[in-house]
């Protein structure tokens, strides 16, 4: 039986009378990587904020594992990486990780073990005791991702996780994401990089506040009769106009 | 538990920011030292007075005042020119049995000193004249002079409830300044710190973990409370030992008041940072929030203000802290006297804290 990890039902949201999301329906089953793609301003970040309970939709509901959001306790099962790096610059990489591990409620032993692990995944082991203010943009992005991976998360929500990360490491990160998926974790990724969209199990195309397509990359390519997800995106955008 | 971790992190961040640290601990010390210099030196005003047609005896009486020096002129015109040329601070012209005094009035304290000196000199002269007339009367009546006039002039012995003869304006404002520095720096730096959390996105990220909103607010309170205690210690020890200011009451109470005031400042800073979009906008609250508090903190005596204006002071936390600190430092107030200011400050604190916890709802709905 397929368990629904994230369920968005008839969600609408507007800011200052401007409709950002219109009757969004999206069911994400457990153990899948979902790519949420769409032009900037399409409402990707708003969807993420509603899933996390930072915003409340004007109408409709969001459920995580059949529990209604917003729900503070459920946040312990969600790893979140925002578009901005959101790091404490005066602290070292390790101190940043330790702090968020504490906030996630990890005990001491788990925290030390997980910090070791996530630092290896994002290739920051050697720089962990340097202050973040001395990090490059890419290193900050990686540390930010490492923070999101901390904890016993059932769900990962990553807003543009690989911006400013070089190709070799990007590949490594994606293989880690796939490994996590194989362990049964659910991962929601927004991205601008269309070849990354090919690596997902399912692509949700968000245009003008509506989900206009939601299927596996292969099926989408068949429907739109194109060779790549990028072309799907372009064609869909053209049809909207 | 999370509260403690947040407090730990805030302190760690602050300790690594050397400049902010210096601002919190060295700036108050430097400013207090400068104020001591400015207010202690030259507390006496020396005035130069031009006199025209004034009797020799009055001139002598005026000259007796060591802060007054007399320049005699024959004509009023010359005296007025001297006044215009800023050679003298006042010109006294005597004619038709009246004194006509013109003051430059650039410095009000000099004007007052001149007025006082003139009055004293006139009083001195009239008593001298009375004495002479009395002597004349006595000699015509044949009474021995020393029988009536022998009683010697009484001496004045001064003693002070607070401080000594050198106590001046600086000593009066020191207790209030102690409170002010704690308020100002905690307000500014904590406001900036939370603003930084908002703009850098760490606040959103923090709220994406299962942390409670209250844990964030309490974490900040704990860390800045500790910082405020240290800051108060530095300020108090410096004023007591280096600036020789006498603290009559308990230093512990001074720290207690400053601690509570720091928490109010912190809660206020966090609340104000909600309305600021950038550091510059945070700075804009200084003239709106901080400066008015100085006026009503007691540095300018409140009982000289109009009643309607005085009411404003009741809504400003610094007034209560200033009252309590002045009481402790200058008259040795005990706990019974400072309990009301503390309760009022705690009232401010509770209201502001609740507003802050609710205010964080803007970033997460639960």
UniProtKB/TrEMBL annotation, chain A:
InterPro entries: AAA+_ATPase, ABC_transporter-like_ATP-bd, ABC_transporter-like_CS, P-loop_NTPase. It comes from the Bacteria. Residues 6-233 form the ABC transporter domain. The keyword Nucleotide-binding applies. Gene3D superfamilies: P-loop containing nucleotide triphosphate hydrolases (3.40.50.300). One of its GO terms (molecular function) is ATP binding. PANTHER family: ABC TRANSPORTER G FAMILY MEMBER 20 ISOFORM X1 (PTHR43038:SF3), ATP-BINDING CASSETTE, SUB-FAMILY H, MEMBER 1 (PTHR43038). This is ABC transporter F family member. It comes from Companilactobacillus kimchii. The lineage of its organism: Bacteria, Bacillati, Bacillota, Bacilli, Lactobacillales.
From TrEMBL, chain B:
It is a multi-pass membrane protein. It is found in: Cell membrane. InterPro entries: ABC-2_transporter_component, ABC2_TM, ABC2_TM_bact-type. GO terms for cellular component: plasma membrane. GO terms for molecular function: ABC-type transporter activity. Pfam families: ABC2_membrane_3 (PF12698). Residues 138-363 form the ABC transmembrane type-2 domain. The chain crosses the membrane at residues 21-39, 173-195, 216-244, 250-273, 285-302, 338-360. Keywords: Cell membrane, Membrane, Transmembrane, Transmembrane helix, Transport. Belongs to the ABC-2 integral membrane protein family. This is Inner membrane transport permease. It comes from Companilactobacillus kimchii.
């Amino acid at each position: 039986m397929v368990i629904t990890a994230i369920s968005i039902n008839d969600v609408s949201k507007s800011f200052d009378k401007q409709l950002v999301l219109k009757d969004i329906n999206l069911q994400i089953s457990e153990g899948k990587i979902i790519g949420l793609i769409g032009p900037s301003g399409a409402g990707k970040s708003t969807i993420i904020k509603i899933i996390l309970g930072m915003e409340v939709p004007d109408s409709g509901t969001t459920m995580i594992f059949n529990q209604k959001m917003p729900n503070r306790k459920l946040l312990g099962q969600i790893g979140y990486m925002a578009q901005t790096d959101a790091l404490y610059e005066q602290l070292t990489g390790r101190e940043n990780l330790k702090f968020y591990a504490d906030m996630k409620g990890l005990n001491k032993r788990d925290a030390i073990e997980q910090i070791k692990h996530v630092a290896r995944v994002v290739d920051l082991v050697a720089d962990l005791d340097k202050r973040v203010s001395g990090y490059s943009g890419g290193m900050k992005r990686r540390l930010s991702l490492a923070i999101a991976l901390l904890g016993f998360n059932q769900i990962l929500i990553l807003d543009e996780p690989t911006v400013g990360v070089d190709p070799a490491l990007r590949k490594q990160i994606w293989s880690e994401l796939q490994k996590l998926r194989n362990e049964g974790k659910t991962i929601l990724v927004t991205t601008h990089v269309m070849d990354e969209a090919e690596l997902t199990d399912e692509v949700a195309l968000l245009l003008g506040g509506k989900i206009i397509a939601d299927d596996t990359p292969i099926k989408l390519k068949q429907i739109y009769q194109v060779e790549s997800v990028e072309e799907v995106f372009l064609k869909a955008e053209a049809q909207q106009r | 538990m999370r509260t403690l971790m947040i407090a730990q992190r805030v302190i760690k961040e602050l300790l690594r920011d050397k400049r902010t640290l210096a601002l919190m601990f060295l700036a108050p010390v430097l400013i207090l030292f400068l104020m001591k210099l400015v207010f202690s030196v030259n507390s006496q005003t020396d005035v130069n007075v031009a006199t025209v047609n004034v009797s020799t005896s009055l001139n002598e009486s005026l000259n007796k005042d060591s802060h007054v020096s007399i320049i005699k002129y024959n004509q009023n015109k010359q005296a007025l020119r001297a006044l215009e040329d800023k050679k003298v601070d006042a010109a006294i012209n005597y004619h038709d049995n009246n004194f006509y005094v013109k003051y430059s009035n650039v410095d009000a304290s000099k004007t007052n000193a001149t007025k006082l000196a003139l009055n004293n000199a006139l009083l001195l002269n009239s008593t001298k004249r009375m004495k002479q007339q009395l002597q004349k009367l006595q000699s015509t009546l044949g009474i021995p002079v020393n029988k009536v006039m022998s009683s010697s002039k009484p001496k004045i012995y001064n003693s002070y409830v607070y401080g000594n003869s050198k106590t001046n304006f600086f000593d009066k404002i020191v207790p209030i300044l102690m409170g002010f520095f704690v308020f100002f720096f905690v307000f500014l730096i904590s406001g900036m710190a939370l603003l930084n959390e908002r703009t850098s996105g760490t606040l959103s990220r923090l709220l994406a973990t299962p942390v409670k909103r209250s844990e964030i607010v309490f974490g900040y309170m704990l860390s800045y409370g500790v910082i405020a205690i240290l800051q108060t210690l530095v300020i108090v020890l410096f004023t007591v030992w280096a600036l020789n200011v006498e603290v009559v009451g308990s230093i512990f109470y001074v720290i207690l008041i400053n601690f509570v005031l720091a928490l109010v400042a912190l809660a206020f800073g966090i609340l104000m940072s909600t309305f600021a979009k950038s550091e510059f906008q945070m700075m804009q609250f200084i003239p709106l929030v901080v400066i008015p508090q100085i006026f009503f903190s007691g540095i300018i005596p409140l009982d000289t203000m109009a009643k309607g204006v005085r009411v404003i002071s009741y809504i400003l936390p610094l007034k209560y802290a200033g009252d309590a600190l002045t009481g402790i430092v200058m008259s040795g107030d005990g706990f019974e006297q400072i309990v009301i200011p503390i309760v009022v400050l705690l009232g401010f604190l509770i209201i502001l804290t609740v507003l802050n916890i609710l205010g964080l709802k803007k970033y997460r709905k639960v």
